[in-house]
Automatic annotation (TrEMBL):
<dbReference type="InterPro" id="IPR035906">
    <property type="entry name" value="MetI-like_sf"/>
</dbReference>
<keyword id="KW-1133">Transmembrane helix</keyword>
<feature type="transmembrane region" description="Helical">
    <location>
        <begin position="574"/>
        <end position="598"/>
    </location>
</feature>
<feature type="domain" description="ABC transmembrane type-1">
    <location>
        <begin position="449"/>
        <end position="629"/>
    </location>
</feature>
<feature type="transmembrane region" description="Helical">
    <location>
        <begin position="515"/>
        <end position="534"/>
    </location>
</feature>
<dbReference type="GO" id="GO:0042918">
    <property type="term" value="P:alkanesulfonate transmembrane transport"/>
</dbReference>
<dbReference type="GO" id="GO:0010438">
    <property type="term" value="P:cellular response to sulfur starvation"/>
</dbReference>
<keyword id="KW-0472">Membrane</keyword>
<protein>
    <submittedName>
        <fullName>Taurine transport system permease protein</fullName>
    </submittedName>
</protein>
<feature type="transmembrane region" description="Helical">
    <location>
        <begin position="12"/>
        <end position="30"/>
    </location>
</feature>
<dbReference type="GO" id="GO:0005886">
    <property type="term" value="C:plasma membrane"/>
</dbReference>
<keyword id="KW-0813">Transport</keyword>
<feature type="transmembrane region" description="Helical">
    <location>
        <begin position="610"/>
        <end position="633"/>
    </location>
</feature>
<dbReference type="InterPro" id="IPR000515">
    <property type="entry name" value="MetI-like"/>
</dbReference>
<keyword id="KW-0812">Transmembrane</keyword>
<dbReference type="Pfam" id="PF00528">
    <property type="entry name" value="BPD_transp_1"/>
</dbReference>
<keyword id="KW-1003">Cell membrane</keyword>
Amino acid sequence: MFEFLFEYRGFIVGTIFIALIATVIWAILYGRNLIRTEKSDAVFGNPERALGGWHWVMTGVSAILIVWIYFSWDAARAFNPKAANELCQVGKLSSAINPIRSTFPLDDGFLKGTSLLVRENKQLNELADQVERLGFSDAEKSQAKETIDLMRKAIIGMTSPEYLDSATDAKFKEIVSRIDGLTAKLADQNYPGDPTAEQIAAAEKNPRWGDSGNEIPAAPASPRGYKFDAAAKEMKTITSDFSKIRNNNSNFLAQVEKLKGQIASLDTLVKASPGTDELLIANRADFVKGLTRVLRRVDDGNIFPPDALNNIQNALVKLDNEQKSQQGGLRYYDILMMPGGEIRAGSSSCSEQGSGRWLPKPSDTLRTFARISNPEIGYKGYPLLWYKMKPFGEMVDFIIPDFIASLVPGDYPRHDTNGIVTPNFKSKVRDFATGNFESFKVPMPSGHVWDSLLRVLAGLFFGIILGVPLGLFMGLSRFSKGFFDPLIELYRPVPPLAWAPLILTIFGIGDDGKIFLLFMVAFAIMVISARTGATGTHLSKIHAAHSLGATNRQILRKVILPNSLPEILTGIRIAIGVCWGTLVAAEMLAGTTGIGFVENVARKQSDYEIIWTTIIILGLLGLLFDLMMRWVIDKFIPWRGKG
């Protein structure tokens, strides 16, 4: 069934998306009309005014789903499945242009040569300031200042148009011609011609958008895609050739050679100068190294006269305008339907960046959930939530303590001389208590979700059983409050994760440690809730009960406990949420099963769909528990909030 739905996911998701938008619009209009027409005698602050409002529930749920479908790009995929493939080819061209584009003030605002000049001049100014502080002799100072001045002249020589040789200028003109030629090709509707057999075969092998690990089909599969793919390949060669161009004019090369000799001479002079201050000697050596580093960067020849690259910049602007024109409506589709990120092209693949990457698409998440929910697949060889047949004897062994057999009179049987053991009543009782007997099998829940659920319920159960009585008596007894309050308040503010490493070290990675950690969390919450409920009981009710002759036990059972139940049940609601959060963290630290274990493994593998699946499962389980608690509160304490 899920495979059928996945086959037609585009139509289904698109229909759902439109229906959700229509639902939100209808619910808002319905709600506004209801406000105008509804008559209510309930005053402001009456809880009755907050009842109902199912249309606002629909609005909230629909709004969440709309945001998820939209920002995960599931709607974009539904309405235009080829958009990702075409944007991948556009990304290839942009990736090919970026190395040459970064040279110009098209994105950063500064010419690359300008930025280099600012950096190198700043470094030279710092070196010039150090000359007076390094204790140089007059000869050394003169040598150092001369070297710095020569370095400045070398840089000025690179920026002067008169020193730019004709060969370099010819290379620039060739680059301009090639970029203009590529711009003209992009404008040609017949470029690059019919796809080759290899391109057609690669397109046929393309996975659909979202069907593979790389997610975005990389091979071009449309006329627009073929055009941008071919342009990207041609642009790569242009960029490569441009990156090889250096401003190595004869004047500059002569100055570089002279600088190398100057720095070597200064280095020899500094090393030969007498001195006993080790820090000063080290600083002088660093000064020479600083000059050497500046020379190496300048020697790369990446600084050109300010107007030498203008024609290339203009050609890039024309190419950029043409490639935007060729994208047509795809640009606006990318802006409107793929918010919060972009499709980026790498050397061999394309990928979603931004919200489209870390927010999985609902349809893909549903398919992942269906896959790991299959008991034959599960996750890491263990089902998500299923059942397995267990002998009834195992449940008897869990419920009945083994020492029951020891209470039966007599001794256990011994073997006779023939090696035969004849069971007696005592041994049969022991076999029954330990589950060592032939029994029928019953289905028992099994899986990651069930394991986590049992741990939460066990920890919560012990926390309620022990925490509520203690909290009540702390609210009623000076001794209980004074004795136990410091103990509770000492560990309650400590985050559960701070206890986790210690508890898991003591109890091991089994269930005992996790349950005990959850018990600690639930216990403190239940103690505080029960104590607050007990101390919040109206004194007039207690006096009335005394005047009617009620005993202390009757007052506790008939007055204090009913008045404390709202606080206690609210504490249970809070404890459930905190226990879930703590359990997931504990299962991440140590565990081989459970929702936290699944999420931890998925995190290490960057499997966002599994991560979001576990988050949704936890949210649904938490919501289920909360709805149950709401029902319990409404059913068993209808007096809540009514005095």
